Amino acid sequence: MQISEKYSPRETENKWYQYWLDQNYFHSVPNDKPAYTIVIPPPNVTGILHMGHMLNNTIQDVLVRRARMQGFNACWVPGTDHASIATEAKVVAKLKSEGINKSDLTREEFLKHAWNWTDEYGGTILEQLKKLGCSCDWERTRFTLEPKLSAQVIKSFVDLFNKGLIYRGYRMVNWDPEAKTNISDEEVIFKEQNGKLYYLKYKIEGTEDFLSVATTRPETIFGDVAICVNPLDERYAHLKGKKVRVPLADRLIPIIEDEYVDIEFGTGALKITPAHDTNDYEIGKKHNLPMIDTLDDDANLNDHALHYSGKNRFVARKLIAKELEEKDLLLKAEDYVNKVGTSERTGAVIEPKVSVQWFLKMADLAKPALEVVMNDEVKFHPEKFKNTYRHWMENIRDWNISRQLWWGQQIPAYYYGEGENDFVVAETIAEALILAKQKTGSQQLATNNLKQDEDALDTWFSSWLWPMSVFDGITNPDNEEIKYYYPTSDLVTGPDIIFFWVARMIIAGLEYRQEIPFKNVYFTGIVRDKQRRKMSKQLGNSPDPIELIEKYGADGVRVGSLLSSAAGNDLLFDEELMLQGRNFATKIWNSNKLIQGWKKDGSIKANEGDEQAIIWFENQMDKTVAEIADQFEKFRISDALHLVYKLIWDDFCSWYLEAIKPNYGDPISEEVFNKTIYFFEELMKLLHPFMPFLSEELWQNISPRTPEEALIIAQQRKNQSFDVETIQNFEVTKELISGIRNYRQTKGISPREEAEVFTNAISFPNENLLRKLGNISTIHFAKKTDKPTFTFLVGSSEIAIPLSEKLDLEEERKKTEEEIKYLKGFLISIEKKLSNEKFMAGAPQQVVDVELKKQSDARQKIQLLEEKLKTL
Description:
CATH class of the largest domain: Alpha Beta
Number of strands: 31
Number of domains: 4
Distance between the termini: 57 Å
CATH architecture of the largest domain: 3-Layer(aba) Sandwich
Mean pLDDT: 92
Largest sheet: 7 strands, mixed
Number of helices: 27
Low-confidence stretches: none
Shape: elongated
Strand content: 15-25%
CATH topology of the largest domain: Rossmann fold
């Protein structure tokens, strides 16, 4: 088949991806093969592809394609996450731009807008993954808010509630005033901010004396219910039982004592505002203090803040500080840097807020989930993340699973009265009515007497079921697919969601199927720029992956991403890596073009040099195949790619093809040609998981293939034995040839000029090949020459090449003397190190052996050069 002059990624990628789809290669159904299953970490439904997604999904595709070629029934389930906070925020912003407020809509009306948004933008990222070459089973695409998955979420909530693991409680939460919902502790990002530390005067009742109390948030004074001092603080012993007046609020509050207060910190007196501080909330509970919430859901001050009602919290802060100063209630204000909690989703400053929420008890659920990771039933790659996991699981807190949102699964709790426990939990309102009648004893209740809880469930409460719910494993736990595909094989994700998602999936799997959800977790690193900054839209340092694909081809981008991304280590993005990936594609393309350009001749037998090259490369390939398998076993995907890269670029292109290449215009033995094509096909099989488009194009170009013979489903080369001696001998051959080539390069000798070689060796391996690639006229074994020579060592063998008559011998003498001088200086530094008792006592034997080898090599080289000097 004719091969074009240049490789065109754009044409190739579109052609073969469509072909793979048309032939249904990505689709999987249970059969008699062993299953290999991966579930995609579902990206946000409104998201677009970024560099992190690109790296993560490239790795998944490499694993899936390789498994498919190893005889597994590979199933990669794609899908998206409904992302409650992020999606609702986008829909609210869109509505606002159209002059519509969420508060003016019913829940049903709002959800209609949200679904329209999702239908319009929801498939973008999945379509982009196709451009990358991801071989997902698109027929299995799932969405965490689709009816079948939502039913499983609701079923699990009801089940956990009935087991006594879910409860409703009044708790302090992290309130995001922009998203208007609480968020988890893990979703709070603490950032340093410049602010002020205000020292306020709290006048002691009946006197003009005052207590100085420091705060960074004077706007919360309207929620103060006490001043707290340490009982051991002698400065305040005389104030026991007294009261102080809250500045501006003109309200008396008690002075209380608690050992929580640090005597050394600040003034030693704390204002207690239980509604607006987590620690104050705990002190408030302990001392039975009242609670005054002074902020509304938008974080604006409410009526408790008197004349500041309705004002933004940060605007009010400055105005209140000014009024305090005017009324001589501000002692001083100092510049202050403190860490402020912000929402990971919206960036808004978090407000601690007390509200009624739903919680899942985690302590007992976490124990078995910790054990399976610690005993390596679930293996983490790299292993270092086990410690991170253990720390979190051993200090786990109850999971706040409710969110004050509409976009999400609505909590299946139905209220029939105003009392704290006047509710039932059921999968449907019909079932809820039956339970409510049983609970109340009233048969007069109807569905219109029941009101469903307004809150939605935390998005993670749906995605923690993902490895099971995508196979309908909660609603139909004995179906054929869940039994065949679960547990899944490997999970590829980022370490930043080890708590949000990985831990919770393990918990859910053990709870609902008494099985781990996956066997391996591969943690990718974070993609960073050259300044080690995390790539983000805000910094503008993140390239568009689709633009990179357009520029370098999907295969080039895949290889560029993987070459420097060892498991768990951050990838420092450099566009030069993408160029390296594209250059690799060009190298492979050109090597095939070279092979296809040779004329075959069936009458020509393979010569001895060809046979030596063939035997060596087959062994070298088998050795590399074993090493690649070992790297995959350890989830060292980058290292596996490096091995494939070296095998193709160095071993095949640079050595093998050079070894068997016929002289210009001459034909090649058909036997050698066919063996070379066989090798090339085997290489394409190894390459395919990493560079699927290029490899399929070349595979199909070599000879006509039926759909059953496509590369995507071809069987990769299995591990075979290899001859170590053959490989070692060829390494000697390569060293000899490199030494001869170095002679020509450093002395300015044309590669076409034959070399005469004298050596103390009695023979060389692969002699015919050595003569061809080294362009050697004669090898004088066990002989010396009196002529001036270029001399080098290969192992214990001395190789001497008589210098060309064209060379300036005086210049050669000077260079040789300089080289001897340098080597003697180098030898002194080595021997100094070896005579150092501290070094010899403390260095590992391996390090010492390296230094001894350097010493031996230097001595041999000096001896050779001194002998050479005598002939000049």
